[in-house]
Write a structure and sequence with these properties.
four-stranded antiparallel beta sheet; globular
Length: about 130
C-alpha cells in the first residue's frame, strides 16, 4: 500500500509560481513511477508530469512543457512539481499518483496509476 500526501497548492496571479510536494510512503529506491495529474471542474483528468524514481527520467504533458519541472528528494521520499509561469488554464485540483514501474513511466494517462493522493487546489487568476 502506497500513501501519498500532496501539499503546496494555493492561489496565485498569472505569471506566478508554486511548488507542489508529494510525500510518499514508498521508499524511493523501489521501482515506482510518480506522476502529477490535474482536473478542473467539468474536464477530464489530465496528466501533467511523471518521473521514474530510480532513473530520474521525467516526462511532461504538452501543456506544461517548459514551465513545470519535476524533482525528487530521495531522503524525504518526496517528489516536487515546480510550476512557473502559471496561467489561468492551470487552475485545477492537482493529484499526486504512483504506480509500480513495469516498462515505462511515459504514459500520462491517469488510468495507468493506481495509488492516489487526495489532491491540492491550485488557482491562478488573470
Amino acid at each position: 500500500q502506497v500513501q501519498l500526501v500532496e501539499s503546496g497548492g494555493g492561489s496565485v496571479q498569472a505569471g506566478g509560481s508554486l511548488r507542489l510536494s508529494c510525500a510518499a510512503s514508498v521508499f524511493f529506491g523501489s521501482r515506482y513511477c510518480m506522476g502529477w495529474f490535474r482536473q478542473a471542474p467539468g474536464k477530464e483528468r489530465e496528466g501533467v508530469a511523471s518521473m521514474y524514481i530510480r532513473g530520474g527520467v521525467t516526462y511532461y504533458g504538452d501543456s506544461v512543457k517548459g514551465r513545470f519541472t519535476l524533482s525528487q528528494d530521495n531522503a524525504k521520499n518526496t517528489v516536487y512539481l515546480q510550476m512557473n509561469s502559471l496561467q489561468p488554464e492551470d487552475t485545477a485540483m492537482y493529484y499526486c499518483a504512483a504506480k509500480v514501474w513495469t516498462s515505462t513511466c511515459s504514459d500520462l494517462s491517469p488510468r495507468a496509476y493506481n495509488y492516489w493522493g487526495q489532491g491540492t487546489q491550485v488557482t491562478v487568476s488573470s
